[in-house]
Amino acid sequence: MTNDAPPALEIEPASMKSSGRCACCGKSRRTAWGFVYRDGGPLACYFVEWTLGRSDCAARFDVVVGSWFDGTTEDDRAAVSLEYRLLETGPSFSVVDADGRPAAEVGRATRSGDVQGTPLADEVMRIAGAILEADARVRELAARAPA
């Protein structure tokens, strides 16, 4: 019997900082980041930015996936950005352009149209879901009630 389930992901939270004020409401924003491993090897790093105490402001998940071994550069990794909202129907991720995001400094910024509907989009959505579930710092995003 074969197991077709994808390998388990390990989420390793790293650090967190204040990241300014929300453009729409002026409340404080926070950014948390960390690392993702699959089968013990490096798979991705991530950054999650959200407005504290606001369920009506979108959060941003930036996931940089690719090769992380010695001798690799940002050209060996793709920076994919997701917008996260908690809707009445549940959590919702959508791929958006990664241009201008901090994650684009460690991976090639991707455009939403080049990622949507691809295996890369599926992988990044799975990673983002694992982050939301495993990183206690951002878990509040899944529990917030819609405004």
Termini gap: 46 Å
Oligomeric status: single chain
Radius of gyration: 15 Å
* The number of domains: 1
What's the tally of helices?
A: 3
Strand content: 35-45%
Q: How would a textbook summarize the main sheet?
A: 7 strands, mixed
Q: Quick one: overall form?
A: globular
What does the model show?
The structure is a single chain. Strands 1, 2, 3, 4, 5, 6 and 7 form a 7-stranded mixed β-sheet that branches. The protein has one domain (9-143). By secondary structure, the protein is an alpha+beta fold. Helices cover 16% and strands 43% of the residues. The chain is globular. The model has no long low-confidence stretch (mean pLDDT 88). The longest helix is centred in the C-terminal third of the chain and has 16 residues, at 119-134. Strand 2 and strand 3 (41-51) form a beta hairpin. It has helices at residues 112-115, 119-134, 140-143, and strands at 9-21, 28-38, 41-51, 59-66, 77-87, 90-96, 108-109. It is built from 3 helices and 7 strands, in the order βββββββααα.
